[in-house]
Amino acid sequence: MAGFNEAWSTVAGSHDGEPVSLTLRPLLEAVYLQSISQPFNPREFKKSLENLLEFLSDEGRTNANCWAVDLFFAHAAGWERDWAQQDLPDDFHNILAKMGEALHDTVRAPDFARDYGCLPEQLLERVRRLPV
Description:
By secondary structure, this protein is mainly alpha-helical. The protein has one domain. The chain has a two-stranded antiparallel sheet with strand order 1-2. Strand 1 and strand 2 form a beta hairpin. Helix 1 packs across helix 4, helix 2 packs antiparallel against helix 3 and helix 5 packs antiparallel against helix 7.
């Protein structure tokens, strides 16, 4: 758990004066824990991703929240084990990679995020199609 706390502290502040929602923390923590869990549980991982992306698609769709999630996966700073080094199935790995690519553009440059397939609702649709 120390790994998550350290990773969270690197993204939990604010972005451009807008605070990161505290509601984001348990959602991000669930994805974090599932991504490094051994053995890997695809059903639980999918569920945690859906919950996070549903939040970012609706009430949590703020610039600060989208930046926090993007940075969380782009840099994996403070993680116990970097998700990119885990033996995740390619479909799951690719979604986390997308979350660390252009998700941060969701609010201020949505056309850019859309072009890269990184809007929360686009990612959510990909997660929902994942076979488990």
